[in-house]
């Protein structure tokens, strides 16, 4: 039988191993993208339940900081072609970062919009003031800022989309993903 102190230590070791594995996988993905060898594996799927399920999986992490995640969508079903694995990585990274950088008791809003044959996904969070210089670096590989968002930007581009960050004073940071839909 493991005592509570040993269990806590083992849980911490497990968390660190998972983080390290995630970083290794991100580095591999980044090198594949840069080499042009990563390909999309698209299939037609219902995007709304896909995104709802992803948000549901992230809610326990949000609850640790007393953060509420809400999804706003104009439709209950949206059958589109996308690579589930890559889109999951993109959205997991964006929503995880929103949780990480939101203040305790904050809110995160994920919005799906359909305009002119384009799908817009917005991740909005409450924010601490960032300098415009730091926002310019958010998608660049910079020491200390990690590779998650630079990888996300390249995965979005592989999906023929764009991603940008827009900061509105006092309201939050919006991350837009734009991709064509049927």
Count all strands and give the number: 7
| Net shape | globular
Largest sheet data = 5 strands, mixed
Tell me the strand percentage band: 25-35%
**SSE pattern:** HEHEEHEEHHEE
Characterise the protein shown here.
- The chain has 182 residues and is α+β, with helices and mostly antiparallel strands.
- Helices cover 47% and strands 25% of the residues.
- The protein contains five helices and seven strands; from the N terminus they run αβαββαββααββ.
- The strands form two sheets. Strands 2-4-5-7-6 form a five-stranded mixed β-sheet, covered by helices on one side.
Summarize the structure.
The chain is α+β, with helices and mostly antiparallel strands and 182 residues long. The protein is 47% helix and 25% strand.
Descriptive terms for the model:
5 helices; alpha+beta; 182 residues; two-stranded antiparallel ribbon; 47% helix; Heat Shock Protein 90
Topology of this structure?
Blueprint: H1 4-35, E1 43-46, H2 47-64, E2 68-72, E3 79-82, H3 84-101, E4 107-115, E5 118-125, H4 132-137, H5 148-158, E6 162-168, E7 172-180
Parallel strand pairs: 2-4
Antiparallel strand pairs: 1-3, 4-5, 5-7, 6-7
Helix pairs in contact: 1-5, 2-3, 3-5
């Amino acid at each position: 039988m493991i005592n509570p102190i040993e269990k806590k230590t083992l849980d911490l070791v497990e968390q660190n191993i998972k983080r390290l594995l995630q970083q290794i996988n991100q580095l591999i993905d980044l090198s594949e993208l840069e080499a042009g060898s990563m390909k999309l594996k698209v299939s037609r799927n219902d995007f709304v339940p896909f995104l709802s399920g992803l948000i549901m999986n992230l809610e326990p992490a949000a609850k640790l900081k007393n953060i509420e995640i809400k999804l706003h969508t104009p439709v209950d079903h949206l059958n589109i072609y996308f690579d589930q694995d890559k889109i999951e990585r993109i959205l997991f990274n964006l929503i995880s970062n929103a949780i990480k950088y939101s203040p305790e008791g904050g809110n995160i809003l994920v919005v799906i919009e359909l305009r002119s044959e384009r799908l817009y996904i917005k991740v909005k969070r409450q924010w601490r003031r960032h300098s415009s210089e730091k926002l310019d670096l958010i998608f660049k590989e910079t020491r200390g800022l990690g590779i998650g968002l630079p990888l996300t930007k390249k995965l979005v581009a592989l999906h023929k989309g764009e991603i940008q960050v827009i900061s509105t004073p006092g309201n939050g940071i919006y991350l837009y993903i734009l991709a064509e839909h049927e």
